[in-house]
């Protein structure tokens, strides 16, 4: 249902050069679009967790509408995006063929539909900000899933404009560690980079300073930090940016269909129809039709739970490679969102496990037969199930074909108006005009946005005493992956970036952290000072003499 609105709205998206456009929609279509945006899609799908991120609620800083060779558009997030839908007019061709993670052999019913996703040429897509923007969508995106921050961070705020956070100290040219975790697995891969704070925090600056991986393995920490597992890593160095650097594939395979979950070889829905069988698509755990790729840690039984699409929690009492999702038994929005650690994912009609408190109300169409109809004839022929009446209607463009229940959508639309949480994301005609003007102003002079850190702190109530996230790595996560990196060789103040280029979706997630790199001599001097200040303890024989006396 969410994807229904995208073809209608792409003409109003922000172009690569941020050209201003007007949106003229008939009232009937506008009412349909209003329904689509009333839910919070819980888009916090991945973050670096150590070193401590500068961004508050770091799961929600990213860019949408990203294709290889183009600047992210800040709008457009559908299952099958096109270059036109994200305003990518001049893409480059894929360069990564060694370490793919999604629709690897183009076996999808839609063939090579994800050809231009960011990880198909790692590092070539340009994010809206090197440290992401709050909520991922520009404020003017016609269809958006904006996260409501607990602090007063505004949607579209640039991560590089935030005040400094907790500072992590590294020794120059030493081996250091960095960790990340995911909630929803969109495949692809990642890289760690730095930018000296003496320079402007741009994508180019980070691109010039990638950090090298120092081992060919990941360290996986699971089960409330009581168990660590070393698993093989898959690196890619050919066809990446910057040239000569190394990216690392997300090691968890999703299930082998375009949506990555609940795949079925007989499904009429292209998103869920599993890929053609071969040796790599043997059933594994809840992925009964196979996996997106063969993962060494699964074949070697090193981390049997390390797979899946909804991955906020992995493992548990069931073991044996099964995914222990405590939320999957809830089959509609109401029951799902009553549970604090569950969230309803509208695009896939699934209740999945997330971090505590992340769940948000969403539109419930799970029991409605209209969206399940594969063609126009069956759609228009569906009018009732038992005594329940439905008003199925067919919508079709060159990009989308979908059946929806017109009456149910209007009913949910009215319900959304009564929700204070939904009102904030509810588009009105006049709001669209205002948003377009705001976007023009937003792009005209981004350098003035939050340029005064003190004023920014006052306006957003940003907690400067507990800057960024101050939790210990893994406190809020069921599992996380750690890599060993080589620290910069030159002492100084840096910003560290974890960049995750997706392969299933047109998104780039970027988390940043404040780093101070010190020389070995400074570390030695600090250690010496600490030693000299210790209390001197008398030799052991002194106590024996004292006792004898």
Q: Care to describe what's here?
A:
With 549 residues, the protein is of the alpha+beta class. The chain is 17% helix and 18% strand. The protein is built from 12 helices and 19 strands. Strands 2, 3, 4, 6, 9, 10, 18 and 19 form an 8-stranded mixed sheet that branches. A hairpin with a 4-residue loop joins strand 15 and strand 16. Helix 2 crosses helix 7. The longest helix is centred in the last third of the chain and has 16 residues. The termini are far apart. The relative contact order is 0.21. The N terminus and C terminus are likely disordered.
Tell me what portion of residues adopts beta-strand conformation: 15-25%
Q: Please, what is the average pLDDT?
A: 75
Helix content: 10-25%
What's the shape? Answer: globular
The major beta sheet can be summarized as:
8 strands, mixed
Keywords summarizing the entry:
disordered N terminus, 549 residues, single chain, disordered C terminus, alpha+beta, 12 helices
Compact overview of the structure:
This protein has helices spanning 6-9, 27-36, 203-207, 296-299, 333-337, 376-381, 406-417, 420-423, 429-444, 453-460, 520-532, 540-548, and strands at 46-50, 61-64, 133-134, 167-171, 175-182, 189-196, 217-222, 227-232, 235-236, 247-249, 342-345, 350-353, 384-385, 388-389, 392-396, 401-405, 479-486, 492-501, 507-518. By secondary structure, it is an alpha+beta fold.
């Amino acid at each position: 249902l969410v994807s229904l609105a995208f073809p209608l709205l792409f003409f109003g998206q922000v172009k690569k050069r941020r050209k201003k456009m007007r949106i003229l929609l008939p009232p009937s279509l506008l009412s349909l679009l209003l329904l689509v945006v009333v839910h919070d899609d819980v888009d916090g799908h991945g973050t670096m967790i150590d070193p401590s991120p500068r961004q508050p609620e770091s799961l929600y800083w990213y860019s949408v509408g990203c294709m290889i060779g183009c600047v992210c558009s800040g709008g457009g997030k559908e299952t099958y995006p096109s270059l036109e839908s994200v305003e990518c007019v001049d893409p480059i061709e894929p360069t990564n063929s060694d370490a793919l993670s999604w629709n690897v052999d183009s076996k999808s019913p839609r063939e090579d539909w994800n050809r231009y996703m960011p990880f198909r040429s790692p590092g070539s897509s340009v994010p809206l900000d090197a440290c992401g923007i709050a909520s991922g969508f520009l404020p003017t995106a016609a269809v958006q899933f904006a996260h409501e921050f607990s602090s007063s961070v505004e949607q579209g705020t640039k991560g590089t404009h935030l005040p400094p956070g907790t500072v992590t100290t590294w020794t120059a040219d030493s081996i250091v560690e960095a960790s990340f975790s995911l909630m929803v697995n969109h495949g692809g891969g990642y890289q760690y980079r730095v930018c000296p704070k003496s320079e402007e925090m741009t994508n180019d600056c980070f691109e010039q300073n990638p950090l090298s991986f120092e081992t060919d393995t990941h360290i996986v920490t699971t089960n409330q930090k009581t168990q660590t597992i070393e698993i093989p890593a898959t690196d890619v160095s050919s066809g990446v940016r910057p040239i000569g650097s190394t990216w690392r594939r997300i090691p968890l395979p999703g299930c082998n269909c375009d949506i990555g979950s609940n795949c079925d070889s007989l499904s009429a829905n292209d998103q869920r129809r599993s890929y053609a069988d071969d040796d790599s698509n043997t059933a594994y755990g809840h992925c009964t039709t196979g996996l997106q790729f063969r993962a060494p840690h699964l074949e070697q039984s090193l981390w049997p739970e390390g797979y899946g699409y909804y991955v906020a929690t992995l493992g548990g009492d069931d073991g044996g490679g099964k995914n222990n999702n405590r939320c999957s038994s809830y089959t509609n929005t109401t029951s799902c969102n009553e549970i604090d650690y569950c969230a309803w994912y509208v695009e896939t009609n699934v209740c999945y496990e997330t971090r505590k408190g992340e769940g948000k109300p969403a539109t419930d169409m799970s029991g409605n037969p209209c969206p399940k109809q594969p063609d126009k004839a069956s759609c228009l022929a569906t009018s009732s199930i038992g005594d329940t009446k439905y008003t199925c209607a067919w919508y079709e463009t060159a990009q989308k074909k979908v059946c929806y229940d017109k009456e149910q959508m209007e009913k949910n639309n009215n319900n959304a108006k009564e929700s204070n949480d939904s009102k904030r994301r509810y588009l009105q005609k006049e709001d669209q005009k205002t948003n377009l003007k705001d976007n023009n102003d937003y792009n005209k002079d981004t350098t003035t946005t939050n340029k005064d850190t003190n004023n920014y702190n006052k306006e957003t109530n940003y907690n400067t005493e507990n800057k960024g996230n101050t939790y210990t790595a893994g406190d809020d996560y069921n599992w996380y992956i750690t890599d060993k990196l080589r620290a910069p060789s030159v002492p100084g103040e840096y910003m560290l970036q974890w960049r995750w280029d997706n392969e299933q979706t047109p998104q780039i997630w970027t988390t940043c952290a404040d780093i101070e790199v010190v020389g070995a001599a400074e570390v030695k001097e600090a250690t010496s000072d600490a030693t000299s200040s210790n209390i001197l303890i008398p030799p052991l024989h002194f106590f024996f003499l004292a006792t004898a006396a």
